[in-house]
Input
Amino acid sequence: IKLIDTVIDHLVLQWDKAPATFKIQVSSDGKVWKDVEGKTAVKGESVNTIKFEQPLETRYIKMQDGIDKLD
Output
């Protein structure tokens, strides 16, 4: 998702079918991505709310599902 330079402190993901694992990445240019959160989805939940420890200032944010290994 391309944002106008913004600060976010949480993210709400609503699923039709949640992946077993996923990670959130941010970027200032849409080319170089930084992992900010890795999660294991709770089976059966249709909504995951992720609260970041520190607010994130970013221009782009994406979710990648089905990651093999969470850090």
About this structure: The radius of gyration is 12 Å.
